[in-house]
Design a protein that fits this description.
CATH superfamily of the largest domain: Medium-chain alcohol dehydrogenases, catalytic domain
Shape: globular
Radius of gyration: 20 Å
CATH topology of the largest domain: Quinone Oxidoreductase, Chain A, domain 1
CATH architecture of the largest domain: Alpha-Beta Complex
Strand content: 25-35%
CATH class of the largest domain: Alpha Beta
Largest sheet: 7 strands, mixed
Number of helices: 11
Length: 327
């Protein structure tokens, strides 16, 4: 079968359209998926660069989010059948025509969604829902600051926070992205290219700061986040290795004096606890997609053979929404 993989770490040029063996068997709790769409995440770029840790020998095949049709069902799997349209979160190997997936991390998707829209869900929407509402306990009436409005995470977070009654402040690098973010529910817009977001947040909140911050940028925003957050606030840090870097200075005194809760999160680091989250997601959030109250926003679709171009495009940060590959 065809896949996109790399035999050394580096730039987009190390991605190769290659032949790899088809999975010869699946586990009793696994499914074999014929892949129709693959969500591209910034972590895929980090895998390619050798920054994101992977426990696999070359060739390494990136990819965490897939959607397609069930081709084979494990002997202990219940609730799935051949030909069913599903999406799944995988540990790696998503850039392939066929992928083995954990049935506990797989869900059928509503008929109103395309496979591209479904593939945009797992890493992004699971991360947003779990961090904002299960860990940070964002409540109706609270104010949340969501960085990177044009990212998949940013768009999903704006929609969910607004749906559940929060007041949303968001940041982006261009006015065009901010205008589109407003269409999805953002109440206040900050262009960080020429505005200091911490100062703007204080103006908006009359000096109180925000209750919750969702940050996937990295170390470069850390000090300003501490300034922009309220006493007792919750600062969520995701997407390690983002554009803002991994290492920075943290003034512990300010964190302690403001009683700030720091929440670091990686959806792949949850172990079997993620199974319960996925079940709850199916009951509480997936119906919102079926009803059109929350939507997947697809910016651009590439063929699997065009994975190099997709990585370049995502690295340029021009997208508003998800980038998707299709075999």
């Amino acid at each position: 079968m065809k896949a996109v993989g790399l035999n050394k770490f580096g730039g987009p040029e190390v991605l190769e359209y290659i032949d790899v063996p088809e999975p010869d068997s699946i586990g009793s709790e696994e499914l074999l998926i014929e892949v129709e769409a693959i969500g591209v995440n910034r972590a895929d770029l980090l895998i390619r660069q050798g920054i994101y840790p992977v426990e696999k020998t070359f060739p390494v095949v990136p990819g965490f989010d897939v959607a397609g049709k069930v081709k084979q069902v494990g002997t202990q799997v219940k609730g799935f059948q051949k030909g069913q349209s599903v999406f799944s979160l995988v540990d790696i190997d998503g850039y392939s025509e066929l992928v083995k997936v954990n049935s506990h991390l797989t869900l059928p998707f509503p008929g109103n969604l395309s496979s591209s829209e479904a593939a945009a869900i797992p890493t992004v929407v699971y991360t947003v829902w779990i961090t904002l509402f299960k860990l940070a306990n964002l409540r109706k009436g609270e104010t949340v600051l969501i960085h990177a409005a044009g990212s998949g995470v940013g768009i999903a977070a704006i929609q969910l926070a607004k749906y559940f009654g929060a007041q949303v402040i968001t940041t982006a690098s261009t006015d065009e992205k901010l205008k589109r973010a407003q269409e999805f529910g953002a109440d206040y817009l900050i262009n960080y290219s020429h505005q200091d977001f911490a100062s703007e947040v204080k103006k908006i909140t009359e000096g109180k700061g925000v209750a919750v911050i969702l940050d996937g940028i990295g170390a470069s925003t850390l000090a300003q986040n501490i300034s922009a957050i309220s006493k007792g606030g919750r600062l969520i840090l995701i997407g390690g290795g983002g554009v803002g870097g991994l290492e920075g200075n943290l003034h512990l005194g300010r964190v302690i004096m403001k009683s700030i809760t720091l929440i670091g999160f990686n959806v792949h680091g949850q172990g079997t606890k993620l199974y319960q989250y996925v079940q709850e997601f199916q009951q509480q959030i997936l119906p919102l997609f079926a009803q059109g109250k929350i939507v997947s926003v697809i910016d651009k679709v590439f063929t699997l053979r065009e994975a190099r171009e997709a990585h370049v495009y995502l690295a340029e940060r021009k997208n508003f929404g998800k980038v998707v590959l299709r075999p």
